[in-house]
Amino acid sequence: MLIGLSLLVFVLHKLDDLLLPLIYAILLSLLLMPLVTKLEKWRWPRMLAIATAILLVVLFLAGLFTFFGSQIISLRGELPLIQSKLVVLFDQQQQMLSKRFHFQPMSHDEVIDSSLSALQKQSSKYLGSTLNTTLGVLSTITLVPIYIFCFLYYRDHLRQFMFRFVEADKRTVVLHTVDNIQSVVQGYMSGLFTVIVVVSVMNAIGLLALGVKYAIFFAVFASVLAVIPYIGIIVGSITPALITYVETGSLTHGLLVIGVFMLVQFISDNILSPLITASKVSLNPLTAIIALILGAQLWGTPGMILSVPLSAVIKVVLDANKSTEPWGFLLGDVSDGEATKKDPSDDRGFLAKFWDQVRGKRPPLAPEPSMPPMPQPRRA
């Protein structure tokens, strides 16, 4: 088992150029399948329905990249002013620290020279990694739409191919498992998009209240990075906090910016995500963290993005088999093991459930099943 697991990890690592576009295409295909199915019910040809769905995704991503590009170009024009203010703040902080701790301060010219020399030594390494990353992104962008089209167009053929490996009496279980995987992926992807939109709005409100420049850009940027659990929000908050600190010269303002992101992330992790995505992806935090680390070690940043949905798919597969069901229980959330289940007839709206989460109130539980009456013993 250990040898097989080691070989599997080795193959997954070596074939990342092939597997990553395939996995992204599978996830996006499952996300787009309801739209394609609905268009086909409206008598659209399958090829036209698939092409329309892919075109909508491409237009959405193009609009997102256009927005980011325009904001980055605008921000680039202010870099000389930010750099000059950063130099002044650097000198002020050095003078204050040198008076307090009695050391010889460095001039900013010395810092720049040392940084440039270190950059020159590592320039070839950085250039090679940048070129590899760029080529990988371009190849992924080119291949993913092709894979999506093939998966959606030949989905019936692929399902029949999978059934040929399964005995006839077990095909119902396999079909149920496949439907569960599709439901999990669709629920996670749609829920993640909803969370990103809501978190973007909350981030923008907080940053605009603090008077942060390019508040909308930083709000959306940090929300998109939140697809990487626990790490994306940290990376997304550093740049606006640094720019706010340079612009205002106040460390308190920079910390307040970080505080806004942390508060919004706390609300997202403890209130929004449980309401929107936890019903579909019931993984405990320990599983998510371990999956995040393993994904980063295996495939880098793309692996971190894929860690949660792939872990949810693995949990569905483990739950489908009696021999592996305990492992699925181990990966699941604590509420999965409760003897009492939530009431499936609870049709309250989102705001009511949101208020219950804020108050820490448990959802309505399903009524206990009534036992049939015991037969009375016959008298002799």
TrEMBL record:
Pfam families, from UniProt?
AI-2E_transport (PF01594)
Is Transmembrane helix a UniProt keyword of this protein? yes
Q: Where are the transmembrane segments?
A: 18-36, 48-73, 135-154, 191-210, 216-238, 250-268, 288-314
Outline the segment boundaries, as ranges, of region: Disordered.
360-380
Which residues lie in Pro residues bias regions? 364-380
Its annotated compartments are: Cell membrane
Q: Where is the signal peptide?
A: none
- According to its record, how does it sit in the membrane? Multi-pass membrane protein
> Per UniProt, which keywords does this protein have?
Cell membrane, Membrane, Transmembrane, Transmembrane helix, Transport
One cellular component (GO) term of this entry:
plasma membrane
- The main location is membrane
Family from the record: Belongs to the autoinducer-2 exporter (AI-2E) (TC 2.A.86) family.
Q: Which PANTHER family match?
A: PERMEASE PERM-RELATED, TRANSMEMBRANE PROTEIN
Q: What is this protein called?
A: AI-2E family transporter
